[in-house]
Design goal:
about 400 residues; alpha+beta; Double Stranded RNA Binding Domain; four-stranded antiparallel beta sheet; two-stranded antiparallel ribbon; 14 helices; about 15% strand; repeat; zinc-finger; zinc ion binding
Amino acid sequence: MECYWQAPKGMDLRDLSREKPVRISIAQKGNRETIQHGPQRSEQRETGEGQYSPERQQGNHPGKGQGKSSHRSKRLKRNTEAMQQKIPHQQAPYTYSDTATPIEHRRTHASENPFTGFDFGKSFSASSLLAGHRKIHAEKPFFCCYCGKSFRRSSHLISHERIHTGEKPFNCSDCGKNFRETSALVKHSRIHTGEKPFNCSDCGKNFRHRSDLVKHSRIHTGEKPFYCSDCGKSFHRRSHLISHERIHTGEKPFNCSACGKSFRETSALVKHSRIHTGEKPFNCSACGKSFRERSTLDKHSRIHTGEKPFNCSACGKSFRERSTLDKHSRIHTGEKPFYCSACEKSFRERSTLVRHRRIHTGENSHIGEFTPFNCSDCEKSFRERAGLVRHRRIHTGEKLLSCCDWEKLQ
């Protein structure tokens, strides 16, 4: 027979936090009663005068006789029914699982968290939850047998060990590519589905990965959390900071296998390698001309569209390329950043400095003049490339402007 324990009025449940009473079971065995407090404690008492009985707990003192046991059972039944009536909205007294005591259960209603984490003061309603939380700060019981790295969870260890074993159990059904983790497969699958679930609230642009959205949002907020320790310059992305730091260190880790030239960034190496391979993957849809770099194609396409997006703030003149605007702005500012090391004369453009240096490297006479640009048809040489281009039209018969074009220019 089982009955359920209820704390007397005025008793503080926190005083019993160490006792863990789950339920009281009274098992009758002859003239002895076994009172069990939960799964760990048990007490045995003799039945009779001066010993524990349900009647004595209620203040009743029955006399001795043959019907003593039956009277005790009846009164115990009445006490149980009385306890049921005190519990509102329930037909039977509430029972607890083997792992939850009445005190632990009452803490869920009272929002009581007596167990406090030793590091940051975080509180928990059960000591088992606190023990699990402490593993975050202290324990990493799962060790990698290959490199000795430790982990808090066995699932993290399993994912890590695939780095050593090379196992990639998650397969893409569209292209057959394999991945070590399901999260990587989910991200990859968005390439095939075109799904971009992460949306920028400022401009509406969508992204496949949350990390890309975080990086993009810094454009709107102006946040530049990555700082160069040498010059203090800040960047939106860590990768941009790493590339920038190589300017200070002089590091160029990416080498061309064809000529041995080294570069600070992989993108620069990829562009350079196309010089050796002759690859020109970017094609103009208007004229079919191909280019090694996308930026060169973008500049070229403005010839067909007539777009001139770069405007001079001083005079309003517009240009197709930013570099042309930079050169033009020096007319207004008077800046001449290119200096001749021989005579210290300065120039607005680098090309003008290059032409000027030929005065110092060759004789300033027509006979001994330094002329690096030679015509392949007549072997005539010129000091500037533009002079060679104009001369070549004599051999090719090319006429850039027709009569109608000339009238338009007038």
